[in-house]
Sequence to fold (423 residues):
Amino acid sequence: MMNRPIAIVLFGLLLAALWSGLANAASGQEANDQESAKDTATIAGDVRLILPSVIYATPGIECNIYFANAVLVLNRRNYSFDVTCEKGFQFEERWTFTPTPEECAEYPLVIEVRDETNRIVARGATSVHVNRLSPDRTEATTLLIVGASFVEYSIYPQHILDLSRSGDLAPLRLIGSRGAGNMPPMGDLRHEGYSGWTAKGFATLAGPLSRSGFHRRGATGSPFVYEFADGSKELDFARYCEEFNEGRSPDFVTVDLGGNDVFRADDETIDDVIDGMFLHYDALITAIQKMSPRTHIGVLSSTSPSVSQDGFRNYTGAGKQTRWQFHRNIHRLVERKIEHYDNRTDERIHLVPTYVNLDTEHHFPTWSPQLNARTADATIRVNNGTHPSTAGYQQIGDSVWSWIVGAMTETCPLQTRPRPERE
Fold:
């Protein structure tokens, strides 16, 4: 039989070992929890990865995240992208997802960016919201589209109108004083698109108004600014609605401005330029909200330029700009718009992330010049570095339409899916 003192000592050692094991297990679990939190923490990193809080999607329409637009790098092929999401497919240049009507839900998504040493240099998270329209929607919803050349060219406004007509539901009713071709509207297509304009122009510029049929570029005043006989002027959205929407506020307004504001900026001036732009952007938004707090306002993020310098070959002299500097300017503009307008849905202000859905490698206009003067062989070059092709404009329209659908009543509750697990 074991000596009693020895048994007591052995029992004590056993308890100590058991306590140590439990403590180590708890410590290990805490370390694992910390590592798990670290693996999903958002870091912009040196490549300045930017993602919005929400990406909107709707059944039957392709939703994309193009990696070249989400990071600020000269060549996205120098990095590895790893997307974790319950849905979609990851290709070389993008993550893509075309939901079905049965996939209405909220899907968390995480992107990790790695360099050539496999070191994580950036990580970001967002949530893909898939919604579909209620079959009970029978009344037309009104939409006012405000912007510069992207809107004036009328391709994506027409695409949004076409998408709203694609089912058996009541289509959108667009409002505005302009139609296609920089002319008064001749049919259902209408908007407030003015090439070359900035936020300041829409908030302050008085002069001959488009409503009078005066459409000459550079000489038309803002449709929202009214000038009086004494020379005073006022930003009056309610009066605009009296003229163009029978006194009613629109259900939706999209504001697509910023590219012209920041075009000539550089790294030293970009934030000051954006600060000034926000003063006028916010003045326009405040005027809309003053008319009706119920109106949903979609602030379009702005979109990246073509990945090719070829489209910037004509920007010389006083208007000189390179593709890389303009991409830097737009990337900073998108960062600041996300900071300023994202997560404000309680005010019915929404950040519409059009930048992630545009294929900047393939959807810009091209031409076929000679390779050089000593050969008749031709090549394909980008012809316009800032304005996309029809397919690119349609991708912008897809993003806007998906946001509109998301802001309307869904037929199914938006279910939150589990956060992606990192391996």
Remarks:
- Residues 22-38, 410-415 have pLDDT under 50 and may be disordered.
- Residues 213 and 316 are 34 Å apart (CA to CA).
- The chain has two domains: 54-128, 137-407.
- The first strand starts at residue 54 and ends at 57.
